[in-house]
Amino acid sequence: MSADAKNRSKVVLITLLLAALICLALSACIGSVMIAPAGLLDALRELLHGAPDSLNATLVALRLTRASTAFVTGSTLALAGVLMQALLRNPLADPYVLGISSGAAVGALTAMLWMGAALIIDLSAFGGAVIVAGLLFFLAYNDFKGTGSTEGGATTLLLTGVVIGAGCMAVVALILSVASDSRLRSMVFWMIGDLSATGPRYVNWLVLAGVLIYVSSLSRAMNVAAMFSDNASTLGVSIARLRKSLFFCAALLTASAVSSAGSIGFVGLIIPHACRFAWGPDHRLLLPASCLAGGAFLMLADTLARTVIAPQQLPVGVVTALIGVPVFLLQLHSHRAHYAKS
Amino acid sequence: MQSHSTQPSSQIQVTDLTVSVARQVLISNLNWQINAGDCWCIIGRNGAGKSTLMRTLAGLLPVVHGTVAINGRSLTSWPLMDLARLRAYLPQGRNDAFGYRAIDTVLAARHPYHDGGYWESEQDIDLALAALAELDVDHLAHRDVRSLSGGERQRVALAALIVQYAQCILLDEPTTALDLPHQVNVMELIARRCKSHHNAVIMVSHDLNLAFRYATHALLLMPDGAWQAGPVGETMTRDSLSKCLEHPIDAVWHGEQCLFVPH
Which residue from B59, B85, B147 is facing A339, i.e. has the nearest CB? Predict the structure, then answer.
């Protein structure tokens, strides 16, 4: 049966990888100028051989860059969601629950208010997220010691995060109310989450890969902590160290995603849930599966966002919410119905 | 089956331990030794400090005053992983936030035995299934733990405790949610682990009759913070129990069996 679990994971991950590649191909082909699959292959060949000359190749290059940003952002958010849920031992947590993204929003909007360049906005968003994360760490330090209750839910951390987040949102409202109309639009778009202004995101890829590799080594301990809460220490898991690691990784991922693409909602909540419904809560599969599923989902959502009302573009955060909410509710409902029957 | 390193002289030594909650002293200056093969039952009223003592022995609460040593080494100086192979703890309540299967929670108790491995071995799964069968819950192996009844969940947790293969076993009210036949089964299983595996067992129980029948020793926690420890024959007497529980209790012999009846 352990061989079963291993094989099953392989099958799931390979299927998800194929699905992600199909989403990638779709997002390269679909747009205001449609490209046939044969055209896509030609364009790819051209790109591999050097500078793209044809319109198709240029388009494909642009779209692939954007799709890769969508993938890394979706992946990062989904992984951050899984980590946050494990950290708070609460399946309803998402990357934004602790107010780290609100801190990033304060940073980004402050930079926009003074007409910062794109890089300054990103850095300032990252800085805001880091400041909030640091503040949380010190204010809720007791929860990181892991000698708390049998619930093991890090309640102080959760409440502190919610309150700091609310404080940050008040600052955001203040900035929005004093900003000039010309800047208001870009601010609102940033807050809903937008992938339109993007170059290649090497830093985000590095952060994602680094964190995924690191937390994979913690996945067994995460399972034990998810099952046994603080009593996991009697099974040899240092809850204090695990909580600190999870918090640091989740904060880093959230800051990385939000500072490059704004706060895109629902990916970090819905993808971990969907993966858990489909393949169970075992973190050894859940971590990589959520990454692939989150990436594929956001690529698809972004393709829709730029095509549904073309030539105008929707912010991708609107699309993720519009797809995510009904799918999630349906799944939840059928799951509960299944439960009631068995 | 797997050979587990056996330490025949496994013992817990409690010296001058004072247990307090919110500055109120519950147990003062406890000196207590638990040897391999002993089955201790802790008896006391609600709030007497039974669970706090268990959590302290399990290393979940810091030792503020006094010392707790396992095999001659202070509890705090043991590496967590080594300690996990030596001592197992069954807490009173369980809070399942995620939908793991029953067998997953049993397999997780094998965590101390593979440091590097990503997946469990076939052997772990055989051990887990055998433990589930021993507690009569093997038919629930693939059920979501959140859908189990209190008694079923308790027996799954006991199965997890078994596969941890620890020499010292701490049980906080192991039989509370169980029906009568399962109470007897579980107590017999615990007594068997003391006798044949030479484990040291400490359990909290409110069932005086079951405790008297299966435990070898008892620790009575008095309401005033005093305590009394010793073989059941000496400690579980009418007078001591009445004093400990602050309620008059009679001891009635029914054939070979001693029954404690409250007035």
Answer: B147
